[in-house]
Amino acid sequence: MAVFILRRLMQAVLVVLAMASLVFFGVYLVGDPVWMFVSPDMNQADIAAVTASLGLDRPIWEQFGRFLWSAAQGDLGRSFVFGEPALGLILSRMPATLELATAALVMAILIGIPLGLYAGLNPDRLGSRSIMAGSIVGFSLPNFWVGIMLIMVFAVMLGWLPSTGRGETATWFGITSSLFTLDGLSHMVLPAFNLALTKLALVIRLTRAGTMEAIHQDYIKFARAKGLSHRRIVFVHLLKNIMIPIVTVIGLEFGTLVAFAVVTETVFAWPGMGKLLIEAIQRLDRPVIVAYLVLIVLLFVVINLIVDICYSLLDPRVRLGEASR
Amino acid sequence: MSSADLPGTERLPAEPVAEAAVPIAPQAETPFGRFFETYVESPLAVGAFILLVLIIGAAVFAPWIAPQNPYDLAQVSVLDSRLPPGAVSMDGYTFWLGTDGAGRDLFSAILYGLRISLSVGVLSGLFALVLGMVVGLIAAYFGGRTETLLMRIVDLQLSLPAVLIALILLAILGKGLDKIVIALVVAQWAYYARTVRSSALVERRKEYVEAAVCLGLGRGRIIFRHILPNCLAPLIVVGTVQTASAIALEATLSFLGVGLPPTEPSLGLLISNGFNYMLSGRYWIAFFPGIALLLTIVAINLVGDRLRDVLNPRLAR
User: Fold this and answer.
1) Which of B29, B37, B91, B226 is most open to solvent, judged by the fewest CB atoms within 10 Å of its CB?
2) Which of B252, B253, B272 would you mutate first to test chain A, the one with the most A CBs within 10 A?
3) Looking at beta carbons, which residues of chain B come within 8 Å of A142?
4) pTM (global) more than 0.90
5) Which CATH class for the B106-311 domain?
6) What is the domain partition of chain B in residue ranges?
């Protein structure tokens, strides 16, 4: 187990390093960010001074070396636009994104599992068929457009819910979140639902497939023969057994949700790190782009690792490190 | 091969082995005919196919079908801007889907947008298919260290969402039609590579490949003439699904402002444009391009779904 984790961690470091250098050199080749700091009335000396203050006058190898050195110490450079440390900037926006992704995940589970159960238990009913057809459409829908339409209907036409921003936040146990205020929650509903839609079809399909497979197993027949109520069979015996694959896949998908939040955050002007990334790209704020990438790759690596470990704990048949490929 | 055009009687003495392996229906049947017959069994899939043909036709012939050229300033009047669907223009023309902020007929703009969206999707789908196919075939044929290295790269790529990869690439490359195609190809080739590799691995161990090796045929010839045609079916299925997702991805990236420049108004850019007018209640500018996008993606996905069922040998009767 320890060897496995160690090997995965080394792999992860390599991945992060490779991605960071790719982006560093790629972004370096694109454009000269100095020009964003230069105003028309500056002379050559001023420009040179700005370049030097940003460290951009050094050869690229030296810049890269310094980038790696400070990255190892947790410093990913200062944002050109905000003048703050890039990592701190992203971390300050991270809670908003994580809370949105968590809310979306919870929503996808709360809506998806009952629908999937229904469709799996009554595969031939009209309701189940419409659920499955709906999940195909949900899978095809361009997410940002659905977001726009949600704003259109619920914010503009009906005026029920606010469409932009995070609303009021409150701090509980050291966590500042919109989840703790009524205003924050009302701001959360639309973006979280929009983000949840990307995973809803997946949860429905997984639950349905698991249900249809499990319903014919002996332990269900036995539970029936024992005279247990239908409700108890479905919600205790069946649900417990189909949860393992669902939990795994959903866990893996959490990273995708965080990545996809870029789109939702832009539509709903949610002040998370995805929106920060888009702004950074548009302003060529190199340190922020690189820092975001390093962070998100780390996040993915950690999620994959956790899921792998959990999987081996939940299912002893999976032997870590021996997956022959 | 040569006896295929003379079916029935010809076959009996020719190759009894093939006869035993593949039960052939009594009437004359071409593989395509059989494929077609199975495909049309699902009315939904037929409808989707017709819809797809209509959409592609509308995109290809947009300059001849569209009531106006939305990017010809002589034909567009700012006085007609932001008209609701069904409004009549100054010179008596009806805007069935309304007009956008610059007075362009939305229906025409959608047709022109479809052209760009579809070409981006098809181009990037095609390039990604070729790249992924070559990588997958090489990995499966040569095996060993080559395979491990290539598949590690594929695994690494598949562990990151496509939207993120494309986004980062576009941050580096900047805007432009060529650049978004590059970004989409890089974001999607791994899916093809994985698909081709898994089916090529199966094919590689079959006897006809062994026979080809014994005949002393070149590697290139064996890979591309013998193995590849037998891996095409899953590749086509993945191709349709990935093309649909490329179209959706392009729209998303353009909406985020990192995809196409305003000179290439794809459906995503039309929607992004409409987003600015939406808070004032002018829903149609964002709504109708989205519907066009949705219909395109759903049609491609339904056709792909049906192809998967038809081409899957395990489901064949």
Assistant:
1) B91
2) B252
3) 248, 251-252, 268, 290, 293-294, 297
4) no
5) mainly alpha
6) 106-311
